Amino acid sequence: MINVEKTQELLEITKGKTIVAATKYGNHTDISRLVDIGIDNIGENRVKAFLDKKEALKDRKIIWHFIGHLQSKKVKQMINEIDCLHSLDRLSLLEEIQKHRTKPLKCFIEVNISGEKSKYGLSPDQVMSFFEKTQSYDKIDVVGLMGMATYTDNEALIKSQFDLLANLKADINKKYKQNIECLSMGMTNDYQIAINSGSTHLRLGSILFKKEE
Ligand SMILES: *Cc1c(COP(=O)(O)O)cnc(C)c1O
Fold this sequence. Notes:
By secondary structure, this protein is an alpha/beta fold.
């Protein structure tokens, strides 16, 4: 169930940023509730759940984000159903999207800013050359970078990882004379730090939901 009060409070304090509701913990009724409150950017992690929820909500005006890891073999069935992808992380995925997408797709390049082996994303030193490659795919429109910080209460460590992502964006803009504006960073545990480091897209999940009683 959606925590309406908390969600409204978050909308107030994040004015000017986009909240992408991570709805893997919820069902389509929860998403409908979020749209009623004023959150119409919805992010899903899994292809099947995304397609089911989109079908159930086809009468609502929603901007659909895919925020989870995307397997190449699943691209074909979903890539024309989304508005934005937060997990562009490899060349083979570029190829697959180029093959199946019918119009340019807004993408965030996912960067492994925590350095943890279990996390997806390009290593920071691969990002520049990967960005350069994206420029020859007309179905890929890179709008920003996405990253997930270490899950810790060490705020200085989290901040250093978000700053790394912000600096990479600045480097791309400088080197390739681009105007990439977006940073998808900040979750329930660390969104305040992300805002201070220049986040434009907060991917918020558990904080929007009421704890089970
Ligand atoms: C679940 C999820 C989130 C939100 O996580 P919370 O900590 O619940 O806010 C953000 N991004 C991705 C990719 C997720 O899978």
